[in-house]
Design a protein that fits this description.
8-stranded mixed sheet; 32% helix; single chain; 12 strands; alpha/beta
């Protein structure tokens, strides 16, 4: 599988509103991120609120310039390109579906104009061909032709998200980023939107990055699952390897706190709150809550470890950052007992 997108040692640091008028605090939204996205694969990104998932999504689609590091799309360094070429490349080859379609769509424009705008900006085809493409996009996401002349406010939440997906696909991208695409929708329509995304991915041979706090949905939809904690990617694994085969303590704790249909929630207990992104801990960011942490964990961030060094990560390999990984085959019950003893 060829790499469509490649991030290397990417950092994003924002200035916070705290810290006083003379020296504002810094928010370490993304730290040392390494990630590849292969053509046609689905990468799921999970983690607690504030862990950097949305920042990562914005970096992937070119909406957020990294403070440091490189973002390569089809081998080209995006932020070394002239602005006009970068906009053309990113605009034509990537699409993004945002969390809330109510704010992502211009409520003053009819659906026809919303879907045609990308075609006009990038000058795709003749006016007649653009009109045909707009009608094609509407059918692609399962909306009737009559929806073209209505305003977003006249549509349901699920219909608005279908319009947002159609707009993201207008230019025929190779990569689609979906950032919490169902969290603002009613439960009854979430499954419809998820099924639509999977269907479009297969039909159009898209690479899909699916960002969500719904861990079980990410696992079901993805080829590979990426776990983030406090701005860092701490584990990457094939979807079939999580949660039972996860090696990072945080991944195991995160999945153990997820409700299932057949088993009650029995979470692995963690000590204390999530640290502030303005003052992250030294070394491994998870060490302040981890039952396996020791002085080594405070000394420095562990280097990536491949559980199968001969397997590339984007081909199903397994990579994690931990000095004391969970033993292969360890059960949640064993880990709960260890965490309770350490508490």
């Amino acid at each position: 599988m060829s790499d469509l997108l490649d991030l290397r040692d990417v950092h994003v640091v924002h200035k916070a509103r705290t810290g006083g008028p003379l020296r504002r605090d810094r928010v370490y939204a993304l730290t040392g991120a390494d990630l590849t996205v292969g053509a046609g694969e689905t990468v799921g990104v999970v983690g607690e609120s504030g862990c950097g998932k949305s920042t990562l999504a914005r970096v992937l689609v070119g909406l957020q310039r990294p403070t440091a590091g490189t973002v390569r799309f089809r081998g080209e360094d995006l932020w070394a390109l002239p602005a006009s070429r970068r906009r053309t490349m990113v605009g034509a080859s990537t699409g993004m579906v945002f969390q809330d379609p109510s704010t992502a769509l211009n409520r003053r424009l009819p659906v026809r104009r919303i879907l045609r705008d990308p075609l006009d900006v990038h000058r795709r085809g003749t006016p007649r061909e653009r009109d045909e493409r707009v009608r094609e996009l509407l059918g692609l996401v399962g909306l009737p032709a009559g929806a073209l002349d209505v305003l977003p406010g006249q549509l349901s939440g699920g219909q608005r998200q279908r319009v947002a997906i159609a707009r993201a696909l207008a230019l025929g991208p190779d990569l689609l980023i979906a950032d919490e695409p169902t969290s603002a929708l009613d439960v009854s329509v979430r499954a419809q939107i998820l099924n639509l995304l999977l269907d479009l991915k297969e039909r159009l041979n898209l690479a899909l990055v699916f960002v969500s706090h719904d861990i079980q949905t990410v696992r079901r939809m993805s080829d590979r699952v990426v776990t983030m904690y406090l701005g860092r990617i701490v584990e990457e694994a094939a979807a079939g390897a999580v949660p039972a085969g996860a090696r990072h303590p945080y991944t195991r704790a995160l999945f153990s706190a997820t409700p299932g249909l057949l088993h009650p929630i029995d979470p692995i207990p963690l000590a204390g709150p999530v640290p502030s992104a303005t003052r992250p801990p030294s070394g491994c960011p998870f060490r302040t809550r981890c039952w396996k942490a020791d002085d080594v964990c405070a000394a420095g961030m562990p280097a990536p470890t491949d559980s199968d060094p001969d397997a590339a990560t984007d081909a199903g390999g397994h990579r994690f950052r931990c000095y004391h990984p969970v033993p292969a085959g360890a059960t949640d019950r064993e880990l709960i007992s260890q965490a309770q003893e350490r508490a």
